[in-house]
Amino acid sequence: MVTQIEQVEACLETRGLVEPDQVDGAREVARGCLVLSSSLLTDRMLLHSGFIDALSESGPVDVWATSASNPKFYEAWKHSRAQISEFPDVLAFREFPHNYLRRLNEYAWDFRQRPPSRLSMMRHIRDRNAHPYVRALKTPARILAALRVERAFEGWLERRLRAYERSPEATRRFKLNAPDVLLCTNPFWFTEPAVVAAAKREGISTLALIPSWDNLSTKNRMLFKHDGYLVWSEAARRELHQFYPATRNAPVHVVGAPQFDLFFQERFHRSREAFCQSQGLRPDLPIVVYALGSPNFLVETPGALHVADLVARGELKDIQLLVRPHPIHDNHELHELFGKFGSRVVVQQTGVAGASVTERFQDQNQIVEWVNTFRHADVVVNLSSTVTIDAAIFDRPVINLDFDPAPGQPHQSLIKEINHLWTHFKPVAESGGVWLVNDFAELVNAIKTYLVKPELHREKRRSIAEYVCGYLDGSCGERAARAVMAFVEEKRKAQGSA
Fold first, then answer.
1. pLDDT for 16
2. Which domains does the chain have, with CATH numbers?
3. pTM (two decimals)
4. Are 464 and 389 in contact (CB under 8 A)?
């Protein structure tokens, strides 16, 4: 019978990660920095910011990416200074006791801290979808919160989860070649924490990059404590300390938003004429971009369909509508839905339709499309999403829906709470830098007004971008790399003086 370790060894050999004669002589060697990526949003940061080049100046850089199975991924990375490998296989936690205890822990922290965003989601979404045995955890969670023992419970749970082997392949890789530090770029997702646990069992230091401004206040809790953290802004640092008190004793580096470094690189800029030609648009007519969020959360397509109908019927005069799906959730059916509205309505293809979420990847053409969509938009319409920041960086007028565009408005109260209660979006929605609209009539008026007065709310838009991103200098990738290098240098000094 082939053992699990033998299967892992064979897998490693097949993927070219080790030579066959290395398998029997497992060794531990410090090899610079290992970066994990399980999302195209972090892939494009690693590929197109200055992070990898800057980090490689201090030693070798390895990247384990879930999108490495996509042939386009290797083509994009062929000039990178990093060594690229496929992401190791990851197993799920057991539903009981692991996921059961995780949900208990999350409820305990929610009842102890009372975070507006998560309590709102609990009321409107999670309570409706959760299995009765999960909802039953609320009672013991309230007891844990009342006794103020949530930190002790989470510490116990972390040790238990860390001990559970979810990635034997990652463990084997670490035994063969241990990096100085592991950088986890998606600490809230399913895959990367499994590798983090393997690293921790091998005594490897870990850093966590908080990859987006909403993660701290909306996502399920990070499974593991890290030795240091990278965040976008001072606001994110405050939220990190608020929601994860243990981080107050760890180094937290404010590095900006590396994924937006691309906006400042002229190599991705195209003229309006060239961009419009690539999209089937006319450069002489205004472009209204309707950006859709994740369909897993809210149904936003009816709003875009309504605006498309207005454009097709000429009720917004001579304008064009460019519908931009979320790059992780772009599916071909959107093209079919909007195809009936004629040449004035265009749907972008932002991702590889049909591919799994973790395997999706954006090639350079899609990056150019992303950047120039917001460079050349005359108005951006969205529903409480990060594209508000994309638009603000380029000083594009941005309209935010303050109502549910779906028939019957099933999520009207939830959307109001997102805009006026949720930790990450309330400061933006109420900043004066976005135009909140309460129905389609107000939306039409806002579009028409912004097309005549694009300078309206300009100073507030700049304030939004600075508040969320921390830095707007196009050098956040290099800043993040310097933070990682500083951590490694401090680690080496501590080891040398020990």
1. 42
2. 4-91+165-260+475-497 (3.40.50.11720), 95-160 (no CATH), 266-469 (3.40.50.2000)
3. 0.91
4. yes
